[in-house]
Amino acid sequence: MTPPYILLVEDELHIANGLIFNLEQEGYHVIHVTTGEQAMEQAPWSKCLLVILDLMLPGISGLEVCRQLRLQDPRLPVLILTALGKEQDRIAGLEAGADDYLTKPFSLAEFLLRVRGMVNRSTWYRNTPQTEDRFRFGDNTVYLQERRAHTAHGDIVLTDLEMRMLRIFFENEGVILSREELLASVWGLAPDTETRTLDNFIVRLRKYFEPTPAKPRHFLTVRGRGYRFSREDSAS
Fold first, then answer.
1. What is the distance between the alpha carbons of residues 41 and 84, in angstroms, rounded to a whole number?
2. Could you tell me which CATH number the domain at 134-229 has?
3. Strands laid side by side in the 140-143 sheet
């Protein structure tokens, strides 16, 4: 029986071998593949804790792997690890559905720290909640410490970025948050950045938490100004 594992998608063997060694030293079980096609064959990733994904792969690109993976499993953590370090590359990776982005060369200590945080988030949903740190709205309960939620559509595990955005909305209930504020607060992007990342995340939150995503009652668009969160049922 396969234990919980990290899926490493990296075609440069000298990099892959170093990562595998250090991840195994940390106690993780690692499955290594070298192509996007091999990565997709791991579906449905039921025991996968984290996907570490290079962008420049033979065959299917890392971006396409990320898009396909995100369509099949919206909650599986994805860490992009790539030599493509320009802002537009980072934006493309986030738009494809990645949760984090680290450029080569990178600090091993920082890499392991990010992996540890993402794996912890991935495993929290298996544990019984030990605190009352929760936020309720509509038919939803978000467990802030465990980074998971109970919704009318079922139980979900939230990514780090989803949780960061939710906290900002919860802390600013009723306040109109501009696109610029959200891009800077959640992703650290410049205010004038042109990206659909924010819109894609809003769509994702509505699918999770709205009774009818096409007619949002909690995550509201304020035309020309930004977005506003309402705990109450604000049918529009």
1. 25
2. 1.10.10.10
3. 134-137, 140-143, 148-151, 154-157
The domain spans of the chain are 5-124, 134-229
Is the sign of the CA dihedral 228, 234, 235, 236 positive or negative?
A: negative
Q: Tell me the pTM.
A: 0.58
Question: What does the DSSP 8-state code read for residue 5?
Answer: E
Q: Look at 196 and 127; give whichever has higher pLDDT.
A: 196
Structure token digits, residue 3? 């234990």
Cα angle value 211/154/122 (rounded, 5°): 125
The residue with tokens 């705990």 is 231
The CA–CA distances, whole Å, from 193 to 5, 26, 30, 178, 229 equal 35, 37, 36, 13, 23
What would be the CATH architecture of the domain defined by 5-124? 3-Layer(aba) Sandwich (3.40)
Residue-wise DSSP of 209-231: H-SSTTS-SSEEEETTTEEEE-S
CA–CA separation, 159 and 73 (whole Å) = 12
Checking if the pLDDT of 227 tops 80, the result is yes
Over 50: is that where the pLDDT of 120 sits?
A: yes
d(CA 30, CA 19): 9
